[in-house]
Amino acid sequence: MSTASVELPAWARVSERRLEHIGRVTELLDQWATGLRLPPEDARAWHDAGRLHDALRDAPEAELHRLAGDLPEYTVEMLHGPAAAALLEAEGETRTELLDAIRFHTVGSARWGRLGRALYMADYLEPGRKFSRADRAYLASQVPHDFDATFRQVLRNRLEWSLREGMRLFPEAVALWNRVR
Ligand SMILES: [Fe+2]
Ligand SMILES: [Fe+2]
Predict the structure, then answer these.
(1) How far, in Å, is the centroid of ligand 2 from the Cα of 180?
(2) pLDDT (tens digit per residue) in 69-103
(3) C-alpha of residue 81 to centroid of ligand 1, in Å
(4) 92 C-alpha vs ligand 2 centroid, how far in Å?
(5) How many Cα atoms are found within 13 Å in the side-chain-facing hemisphere of 164?
(6) What's the gap in Å between 80 CA and the centre of ligand 1?
(7) Of 66, 99, 121, 163, which one's alpha carbon is 20 to 30 angstroms from that of 172?
(8) DSSP single-letter state for residue 30
(9) Residue 5 has what pLDDT?
């Protein structure tokens, strides 16, 4: 699938650069869904998770706060996940796993099944990011063969980075690590 074929809702607020990221994340999820021989309904949900996860990434801060509700621990960069999930839900989206994947993609969630975990990996492993290209490409290639071990490694990488940078560790991310380590 080419990035040009990713369709966004009318309410999406994304820059051109962001749209390219969304296209690459969606393409990776499509590849994994094919590699894992997911049933069409699941493959569609994986595709939609990629397509919609950053739909409000470049929305104005006030709009993000209004949509995401009261999340005092979240930085403004993290609000676009819960905000997009809230809008999708208000529009009638009922696929809970899809909503939770989008809602928590900036933090992580111990309640995630494969969909949330796949989106979390694709967001990090998509080939447009400039760091650790070879390592990340290798991990991306392993997802259809060893989903759980690859997820553990991606989560470990992301948590290690947060620690190194002196960032806050969110309890949701720590609970997720404790579940899969
Ligand atoms: Fe995001
Ligand atoms: Fe993203």
Answers:
(1) 22
(2) 999 989 999 999 999 999 999 999 999 999 999 99
(3) 6
(4) 23
(5) 6
(6) 7
(7) 66
(8) H
(9) 72
